[in-house]
Amino acid sequence: MAARRGALIALEGVDRAGKSTQGRRLVQGLRAAGHKADLIRFPDRTTEIGQLISSYLVREKDLEDHTVHLLFSANRWEHVPLMKEKLHQGITIVVDRYAFSGVAFTNAKGNFCLDWCKQPDVGLPKPDLILFLQLSPEEAAERGNYGHERYESSSFQEKVLQSFYCLMEDKTLNWKTVDASQSIEDLHREIKSIAEKTMEEVQNKPLEELWK
Ligand code: ADP
Ligand code: 2DT
Ligand code: MG
């Protein structure tokens, strides 16, 4: 029998819902429980493509909208060979944002349909679980003001949320919504338990391709 594989777990949600906090905490918690787990943040601003994306987000550089959409996708694709290798070695990969942020943010610009937005990411490793951290705009506001990066405004974030809801209608994907207003530790416990259940369920199943 083939060796057990790791699970691919994506964290999505509105700004300040706690994706980065929970991503770090989940990998830490899984490792402490004896699992092999790694974290990837998308965009990964450390690669050459990621540095271009970062200069766009901090408004140092203007990039045409199609171009930047494709760069975000390329920034995922450049990780795919290593992601697949790790998953097949039994390492669970937690991704802080994935193709769903890619689609939701570009679609929120208004002149890009969901279908066009999805195409560059078709065939990426399909997440076994997508955790959507749900938080009301009021509660998010209590966690601090928006920064100065592109996309950080409440009107734009509301459009992003509507795009996420459209993507969540796809029942071929394993979306699970969690209440992100809980304390960091309570939410961590809930997320870790859902993650471990998924890891158990998919360990002998083949890795699938996204939107294919
Ligand atoms: P995201 O990556 O979704 O934008 P972060 O993990 O960076 O969110 O968290 C945004 C801010 O909210 C940080 O200051 C973080 O410490 C705080 N925070 C995260 N989770 C919680 C929580 N469950 N309760 C209260 N504050 C939180
Ligand atoms: P953070 O680094 O704070 O998560 O912000 N984005 C992200 C896109 O527009 N497309 C994508 O494919 C991805 C992964 C969301 C990153 C910002 O970049 C946006 C917020
Ligand atoms: Mg974050």
Automatic annotation (TrEMBL):
Pathway info: Pyrimidine metabolism; dTTP biosynthesis
Gene Ontology BP annotations: dTDP biosynthetic process; dTTP biosynthetic process; dUDP biosynthetic process
Boundaries of every Thymidylate kinase-like domain copy: 11-191
InterPro entries: P-loop_NTPase, Thymidylate_kin-like_dom, Thymidylate_kin_CS, Thymidylate_kinase
Catalytic activity: dTMP + ATP = dTDP + ADP
A Pfam family the protein falls into: Thymidylate_kin
EC annotation from Swiss-Prot or TrEMBL: 2.7.4.9
Keywords: ATP-binding, Kinase, Nucleotide biosynthesis, Nucleotide-binding, Transferase
Gene Ontology molecular-function annotations: ATP binding; dTMP kinase activity; nucleoside diphosphate kinase activity
GO CC terms, sorted: cytosol; mitochondrion; nucleus
UniProt entry tagged with the keyword GTP-binding: no
Gene3D superfamilies registered for this protein in UniProt: P-loop containing nucleotide triphosphate hydrolases
Similarity comment: family membership: Belongs to the thymidylate kinase family.
NCBIfam families: DTMP_kinase
Known function: Catalyzes the phosphorylation of thymidine monophosphate (dTMP) to thymidine diphosphate (dTDP), the immediate precursor for the DNA building block dTTP, with ATP as the preferred phosphoryl donor in the presence of Mg(2+).
Protein name in the entry: Thymidylate kinase
Organism of origin: Pipra filicauda
